[in-house]
What does this fold into?
Amino acid sequence: MSIAKASLLLLLAVIGSSAEPSVEECQGLAKRLPSKDLHEIYGEWVLVWSVSDHDKGHGLLANLTSSHVKFQLLTDNKTIEYTEKNAFSNFCTAYFINLTVPSDDAEHHTLKCHSIRVEKDGVVQEYNDTGEVDLYESCSDCLLMTYKTSEYKFLLSYKKEGSHRDVEQHKATHDDHKKLAECLGFPHDKPYTYDGVSDFCHKKSAPEANPEQS
Ligand SMILES: *[C@@H]1O[C@H](CO)[C@@H](O)[C@H](O)[C@H]1NC(C)=O
Ligand SMILES: *[C@@H]1O[C@H](CO)[C@@H](O)[C@H](O)[C@H]1NC(C)=O
Ligand SMILES: *[C@@H]1O[C@H](CO)[C@@H](O)[C@H](O)[C@H]1NC(C)=O
Ligand SMILES: *[C@@H]1O[C@H](CO)[C@@H](O)[C@H](O)[C@H]1NC(C)=O
It folds into this structure.
């Protein structure tokens, strides 16, 4: 085989194995959610895929069995209540966070968590970290965002509660999620994936299977 041919094959092998997303691909994948569409986040969501950029985040994701999130606009129309309930094998943590609805008309916003209350199994924990949420465009029953603390961050992909149990469908999106992770500078070798059945802290994953649960 000629050297030229060998190096061409080598080049193709490299492109084939670690195809890094191009700038154009990243622009298509990592589109910030316009602030005018903020209402799309209201509702209840189940985390189906997530990665972090730090050991603390990896440890958390490694032990997580389910994460349920609710975004709700309060009646003042200025505050979004952001409630996250994380189930681990033998305890639950809940985050109660208030976000301010942006009042200026910038095209998109980073939402700052201006108050965070954390409870572990119902007991209030000391918590003094900051939080910032960036939202990205995604499919109609999906929520895609990053959550940044002062030290590390998460890339989080949610499905609307109700369409959260179709694990095969989730799998079909993993390649896109990995590409998005690369675009946003996240390693993706230790992802969290929802198993489709684990219950949430406060309710069953499949209420119809347990009629006594409301
Ligand atoms: C996750 O679980 C492992 C093994 O049980 C433990 O060593 C580690 O501290 C846990 N990490 C977190 C963040 O809870
Ligand atoms: C909030 O928005 C709704 C719908 O636009 C409106 O009916 C309501 O009066 C608003 N409430 C306040 C406190 O501004
Ligand atoms: C969020 O704001 C609401 C309404 O002002 C308030 O009742 C609630 O305690 C706040 N939550 C946190 C975690 O500060
Ligand atoms: C938050 O708490 C940690 C540990 O208790 C401490 O090291 C850090 O300085 C605190 N940060 C702030 C902003 O108070």
In short: The helical segments are 3-17, 23-29, 55-63, 167-171, 174-183.
